[in-house]
């Protein structure tokens, strides 16, 4: 088996809008090894979210392929896709995507219940993870009653609770203050020690420096920058 967890070959992504075509990714070729914390940087609009959505199987590339554990995950059936997502991938969305009719605690527990875990254990685990992002006092709050940063921390907890091999985080510290950003980032570092692979899109240079390496997205291409 390949030592690369994720292999990306000749990846291209375009969006068609009315009569115009937006070319976002253009021939991206990179590999990501297991157990790495990788920062994805690039100007606003360069395609970071687009790239993470492709890796999370939420969108299909225009051309090219993505391999996970050496197997192509491009153009596979919806059933296979859903199984791969459930077993291996969690994503923290840039706009957090919390379920508005559920409390913070329920939002974090739901992915566990979906993964067939017992209800009581799911709630207990969700409480523990919410404590790690300092939200024990907001368990029964609905997203609309939480601040932007608190909502983002619930989204982070939801993804962490799922305990997947791959964690894709789209500007997870964007709404957080300095201290909380550092705390959240240190939690990602701990996950790396558990051999998780974490890809974080960020505009925060200081945090990017703490990653194992940086992928820089400029003009549709992604280049690896060594430290
Ligand atoms: N569904 C879509 N249809 C058309 N264009 C899109 C679509 N999604 C994204 N784009 C365009 O693709 C480009 C890249 O967007 P993307 O959200 O990936 O950027 P980003 O690097 O994440 O930016 P930011 O740092 O602001 O979050 C943008 O120009 C955007 O307008
Ligand atoms: Mg984005």
Describe this structure in words.
The chain is an alpha/beta fold. It has seven helices and ten strands. It has one domain (34-63, 77-225): P-loop containing nucleotide triphosphate hydrolases (Rossmann fold, 3-Layer(aba) Sandwich). Helix content is 35%, strand content 29%. The strands form two sheets. Strands 6-7-8-3-9-10 form a six-stranded mixed beta sheet, sandwiched between helices. The protein has a four-stranded antiparallel beta sheet with strand order 2-1-4-5, covered by helices on one side. The structure holds adenosine-5'-triphosphate and magnesium ion.
Output the keywords.
227 residues; alpha/beta; Rossmann fold; 6-stranded mixed sheet; 4-stranded antiparallel sheet; 35% helix; 29% strand; binds adenosine-5'-triphosphate; binds magnesium ion
């Amino acid at each position: 088996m390949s030592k690369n967890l994720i292999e990306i070959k000749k990846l291209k992504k375009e969006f068609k809008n009315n009569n115009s075509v937006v070319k976002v990714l253009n021939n991206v070729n990179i590999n990501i090894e297991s157990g790495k914390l990788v920062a994805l940087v690039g100007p606003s609009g360069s395609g970071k979210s687009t790239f993470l959505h492709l890796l999370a199987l939420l969108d299909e590339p225009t051309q090219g392929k993505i391999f996970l554990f050496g197997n192509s995950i491009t153009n596979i059936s919806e059933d296979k896709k859903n199984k791969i997502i459930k077993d291996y991938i969690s994503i923290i969305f840039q706009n957090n995507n919390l379920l508005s009719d559920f409390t913070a605690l329920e939002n974090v527990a739901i992915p566990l219940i979906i993964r067939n875990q017992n209800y009581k254990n799911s709630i207990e685990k969700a409480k523990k993870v919410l404590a790690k992002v300092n939200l024990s006092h907001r368990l029964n709050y609905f997203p609309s009653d939480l601040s932007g940063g608190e909502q983002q921390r619930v989204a982070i907890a939801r993804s962490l609770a799922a305990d997947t091999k791959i964690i894709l985080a789209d500007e997870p510290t964007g709404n957080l203050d300095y201290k909380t950003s550092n705390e959240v980032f240190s939690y990602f570092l701990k996950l790396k020690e558990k051999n998780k692979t974490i890809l974080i899109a960020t505009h925060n240079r200081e945090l990017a420096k703490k990653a194992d390496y940086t992928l820089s997205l400029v003009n549709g291409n992604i280049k690896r920058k060594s430290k």
